[in-house]
Amino acid sequence: MLIGADPSHVGDRCIRVTIHHCFFDGTRQRQPRLRYGRVHLYNNYTKNWGIYAVCASVEAQIYSQCNIYEAGQKKKTFEYYTEKAADREEARSGLIRSEGDVFLNGAQACLLTGVGKEWVFHPSEYYPTWTYEAPSDSLKEILQICTGWQPLRRPAEMI
Prior knowledge:
Elements: E1 2-3, E2 16-20, E3 23-25, E4 33-34, E5 38-42, E6 45-47, E7 54-56, E8 61-65, E9 68-70, E10 78-80, E11 83-84, E12 91-92, E13 95-99, E14 102-104, H1 137-146
Parallel strand pairs: 1-4, 2-5, 3-6, 4-7, 5-8, 6-9, 7-10, 8-13, 9-14
Antiparallel strand pairs: 11-12
């Protein structure tokens, strides 16, 4: 999931996205990859990614909360790409704040040290309340069973 397609799209600074209760299984990357904007990720289950799970690039802010990251062969959960915004002189990466996330099977958060956490927005700036669950085996099971495409029976009058 690419949010903010190009570093020349400086108008994307206004993007605000919430991603919750998703199951990303065996995807290569971009759960999501963000340029600019702000993304709140919570109660997702990301498993067996190919390059990285989540990426913050030019001026992005990602608040990752109570997610489950289960590594396969690749262990690096968070990635940072440095890019130059079209209206800036200096190239920058994005920032990721992780709170309450669980890292399984050797998944490595790879959070930046010494800078950033305090600069990432807090979801309460955009909505006063939200309900999240602790990242647990039961959450993992529910997401595997209930997310994505589901076979649905059509009502009798439509058959």
